[in-house]
Design a protein that fits this description.
The chain is built from 8 helices and 7 strands. By secondary structure, the chain is of the alpha/beta class. It starts with 14 loop residues before the first strand and ends with a helix.
């Protein structure tokens, strides 16, 4: 979807608002990779300013500085804006804050669509929740946010609007997040009370039972 796959074979059409993607597609999108790629010697503000100088067109330094300030506000990074990012050799900000800086590197270009590859990788449960809450706020501000995520806790799962559940590259469910329970219930696979729906569907997807109920879901999906 993000047009970054360079290996294997793909087929079909990818549309944007029902129309073929134009040449400006990548300019309208941001892509946050699974691993942080930040300069550990820079402060948070310097990292974002460096990105703005490289990726934002025009020569107006005031406009670029305002973009940096806006990103710092949006991602609640004001308290660490002038702290060193740090890394293996330098002590710095927390892992969750680094993930927010990595998101901020993409937000500096003001993308309409933001893709994230497993953004909670390496974070503990609470840090993951804080990060996804910020992503939820970005979505509420008018951006489209798409991300892959593995086994989110219930309060993180509840922050998503739409769920795409896949098994071996095939669609098993695509629709409203709160529609997965009635859908599975109608297929004869009710989610037990008190069970995290995210854990249940992941376990179902990876099931190796002889009957492979998930295969039936894939086969029946329109």
């Amino acid at each position: 979807l993000a047009d970054r796959m360079r290996v294997g074979h793909t087929a079909g059409s990818v549309l944007l608002n029902g129309q073929p993607r134009g040449k400006c597609f990548k300019r309208a999108c941001g892509y946050v990779e699974q691993s942080d790629a930040l300069f550990e010697q820079l402060t948070v503000r310097e990292m974002l300013q460096f990105t703005a100088e490289l990726r934002v067109g025009g020569a107006d330094p005031a406009a670029k500085a305002e973009r940096v300030r806006r990103v710092i506000r949006e991602l609640d990074l004001a308290k660490v804006a002038d702290s060193t990012i740090g890394g293996e050799s330098t002590r710095g900000i927390s892992g969750e804050q680094k993930r927010r800086v990595t998101v901020g590197v993409e937000l500096v270009t003001q993308p309409s669509v933001l893709f994230l590859d497993e953004p909670t990788t390496g974070l503990d449960a609470y840090s993951s929740l804080l990060l996804v809450r910020k992503l939820r706020a970005l979505a509420d501000s008018g951006r489209t946010v798409l991300c892959t995520i593995h086994q989110p806790r219930p309060d993180i799962f509840a922050l998503f609007d739409t769920l795409l559940l896949m098994s071996s590259g095939e669609i098993a469910y695509f629709g409203a997040r709160n529609g997965i329970q009635p859908y599975l219930g109608g297929a004869g696979i009710p989610i037990p009370a008190g069970v995290n729906p995210a854990d249940f569907v992941v376990d179902l997807t990876y099931s190796r039972d002889e009957e492979r109920v998930i295969d039936k879901l894939v086969a029946s999906w329109p």
